[in-house]
Amino acid sequence: MITQGNVVAAQYKFASKSEWDLIKAVQGGDKQAYNQLYQQYIGQVYGLCIRLTGEKMLAEDAAQEVFIQLWRKIGNFKGDSKFSTWLHTVTSNITISYIRKQKGWLQKMFNIEDSVAMNAEAEESSSSVDIESYVARLPERARIVFVLHAIEGYRHEEIATMTDMAVGSSKAQFHRAKHLLKEWMGYE
After folding, report:
1. CATH code for position 147
2. InterPro entries, from UniProt (predicted)?
3. DSSP string covering 89-137, please?
4. 3-state helix, strand, coil in the chain (%, to 5)
């Protein structure tokens, strides 16, 4: 016998019942449920934002933008996948878009080449440089492709769609990122 509950359960098979109830509450405008969703996912969202932007301030702003857009667009989530998967895609897209919007502003406010050189000098003088600091040093397009492919597991075809670049460009940027990381880490 098919009941409305069975249809809902089948349609939203990837979300747990409590998660689905929370999402439905947020879709209905419940601000307390939204706050709970925020608390549950802010760490994951911020982590992806910091890996994509390479800068704390930009990552914080991008994460904030993700949650602003989440409030506006959560109605688009239909439960066809896990909420965390959907949010990951939304976060990637919004962060990449945010980086593009901020690029002109950042170039006016800071001399990008000088800040990259200063960061590189500071990191080279530190004895405890980790991989994330090296990833943060990568040029923007190479960093985005590297994070999306090597860390987040996206295919180059997906990255090309997300970033509006050719598949070959995605592969070239990934190769560039790997080469730079090997060089900086002393593997070449």
Report:
1. 1.10.10.10
2. RNA_pol_sigma-70-like, RNA_pol_sigma-70_dom, RNA_pol_sigma70_r2, RNA_pol_sigma70_r4_t2, RNA_pol_sigma_r2, RNA_pol_sigma_r3/r4-like, WH-like_DNA-bd_sf
3. HHHHHHHHHHHHHHHHHHHHHS-HHHHHHHHHHHHHH-S---HHHHHHH
4. 80, 0, 20
Beta carbons of 49 and 91 less than 8 angstroms apart? yes
Dihedral sign for Cα atoms in the order 152, 153, 155, 158: negative
Sign of CA dihedral 6, 89, 73, 22: positive
Domain count, the chain: 2
Pair 153, 164 in one domain = yes
**pTM (2 decimals)?**
0.64
Q: Which domain holds residue 155?
A: 111-188
| CATH code where residue 73 lies | 1.10.1740.10
Per-residue pLDDT of the chain (188 residues; tens, 9 = 90+): 444 444 444 344 445 668 889 999 999 999 999 999 999 999 999 999 999 988 898 899 999 999 999 999 999 998 888 899 899 989 998 998 888 777 655 454 444 444 444 454 444 444 334 677 888 889 999 999 998 988 888 899 999 998 889 999 999 999 999 889 888 877 76
- For residue 3, give the DSSP letter: -
Interatomic CA distance for residues 69 and 89, integer angstroms: 13
Measured N-to-C along each axis, helices 156-163 and 83-109 cross at an angle, to the nearest 10 degrees, of 50
